[in-house]
Specification:
Blueprint (H helix, E strand, L loop, with lengths): L5 H24 L14 H10 L5 E4 L4 H7 L3 H8 L23 E3 L6 H15 L5 E6 L6 H13 L3 E7 L2 E2 L2 E2 H4 L15 E6 L3 H16 L5 E6 L17 H10 L2 H11 L4 H23 L19
Bound molecules: thiamine diphosphate.
Thiamine diphosphate (TPP) binds next to strand 3 and strand 5.
Length: 320
């Protein structure tokens, strides 16, 4: 197994993302995270695929389920985890928490307001155009967000101006408890793209190889001046909408089936094994990633919490 083999790197990235969210779950259980936590478990293939085609100057604006997109954009894992654990060493000094990580050096941000990531990404795309830069803005949303007015307004402007924007829809078929099929007028989100003069693409977001290829093609088109792309990646959500969601709108059997049949890491592992990669080598890599993430969590735990006396800091921009 060559560690620089792109197939192995993809696999490792997925393992790192899952281990990251498992570390968040552990921290939540120990009372180290307050407020809501939305994990991306079972959606790792999309984040890992994004990481390959994003460049430093590109922008990513994500959602409440943002950890993997941040890691894909190159946001430092330590400062991200520290933000989630509300530490002074976090991206926003512990004031933003898991739904509001901001990292200007990598042009990464997120919002907990459904659909609101997209106009912000549009703003990045317009700025890149005005400055004559060949960067691409990626706005991420879930399928629920694809029904919002902001989604439509963003694509109207991006289509009319041929802006360098990729709208990435992570379609896990649920918006909290609402099934995609119960509320969507179309069978897919991607097929709506023509209405905005965008290219529509649909990919199986549990297949990391196919998703990496699709995301690369979307980025290439947007970067090359070909106008916006609406890329829909289908996937499944293994856990409740947030930690604490009783998740009674799905049967146990259905959840078991999703975990067993649509886990992107298990699917990719099976493909690598079939291609001749050794099981031992993959197990070693998984153990290594788990150990690295455990060390990361330990390090973040030792970081200080914000001083309550500073609660009113950073609320207003200072005059220059
Ligand atoms: C404007 C707005 N309306 C409602 C909510 C409450 N809310 C949070 S997440 C969510 C569902 C989002 O579903 P989807 O976009 O499919 O993303 P997923 O959670 O499946 O990743 C809702 C309704 C919100 N955060 N913002």
């Amino acid at each position: 197994m060559r560690p620089n083999d792109p197939r192995i790197l993809r696999h490792r990235r997925m393992l790192e993302m899952r281990a990251f969210d498992e570390a968040c779950l552990e921290a939540l259980r120990r009372g180290e995270i307050h407020g809501e936590l939305h994990t991306g478990i079972n959606q790792e293939a999309i984040g890992a695929a994004m990481a390959e085609s994003l460049r430093p100057g590109d922008a990513v604006v994500s959602t409440h389920r943002n950890h993997f997109h941040a890691l894909a954009k190159g946001v430092p894992a330590r400062a991200l985890l520290a933000e989630i654990l509300e530490r002074e060493t976090g991206l926003c000094r512990g004031r933003g928490g898991h739904m509001h990580p901001f990292h200007p050096p990598t042009n990464f941000s997120a919002t907990g307001i459904v659909g609101a990531s997209l106009p912000v990404a549009l703003g990045y795309a317009q700025a890149f155009r005005l400055r004559g830069e060949d960067h691409v803005a990626v706005g991420v949303t879930g399928d629920g967000g694809s029904h919002t007015g902001a989604f439509h307004e963003t694509l109207v402007i991006a289509g009319a101006r041929r802006l360098p924007l990729v709208v990435l829809v992570e379609n896990n078929a649920l918006a909290i408890s609402v099934g995609f099929g119960d509320v969507s007028p179309t069978a897919t989100v991607a097929e709506r793209a023509g209405a905005w003069g965008a290219r529509g693409m649909l990919v199986d977001g549990t297949d990391v190889d196919a998703t990496a290829e699709a995301f690369a093609a979307a980025m290439e088109q947007a970067r090359g001046g070909g106008g916006p792309v609406l890329l829909e990646a289908t996937c499944t959500r293994a856990r409740g909408h947030f930690e604490g969601d009783p998740d009674t709108y799905r049967t146990r059997e259905e959840k078991r089936r999703l975990r067993e049949e649509r886990d992107p890491i298990a699917l990719h592992r099976a493909r690598l094994l079939a291609e001749g990669v050794g099981a031992d080598a993959l197990d070693r890599m998984a153990a290594e990633v788990r150990a690295e993430t455990a060390r990361l969590l330990e390090a973040v735990r030792a970081d200080p919490l914000p001083d309550p006396a500073g609660a009113a800091l950073y609320l207003w921009a200072e005059e220059a």
